Amino acid sequence: MSFSQPTRGVVCAIWTPLNSAGGIAFDLLDRHLDWLATMELSGLMALGSTGRFPFLPPELREQFLRHLLPRCAGSLPVIANISDLE
Asked: pTM for the whole thing?
C-alpha cells in the first residue's frame, strides 16, 4: 500500500516503546501493532516528533523501522519521520 492516492480516515501516530536498557521493546511494539490491526485505520505515523524521538540515536530509529515496515507491508501504509535536531 502507498499514499499515492488521497487518504481518508485515521492515520494513527504510534509510540516507540523502550525497554529498561534504552533499546526498542519489540515485544510491546508487536502487541500494540496486533491491537492496532483490529482498528479501522488508514495508516500509521512512526517516529513522530514528540516524546523521546528527537533523542533516539539513528541506529535505534533504523531498528524500529526495519521491524515495523515488514509487519505492516500490504496492510497499512506507514509515514516514517526521518527528521533530526540538527
From this structure: 0.84
Which cell numbers hold the place of 56? 533516539
Number of CB atoms found within 10 A of residue 33's CB: 17
1 within a domain of the structure (yes/no) = no
Q: pLDDT tens digits for 14-53?
A: 999 999 999 999 999 999 999 999 999 999 999 987 777 7
18: nearest Cα among 58, 43, 48, 53: 53
Could you tell me if residue 24 is inside a domain? yes
User: Cα(70)–Cα(2) distance, rounded to whole angstroms?
Assistant: 14
Give the total number of structural domains in the chain. 1
Q: How far is CA 33 from the centre of its chain?
A: 9
- Identify whether 46 is part of a domain: yes
Torsion of CA 47, 51, 64, 60, to 10 degrees: 120
Would you give the DSSP letter of residue 18?
A: B
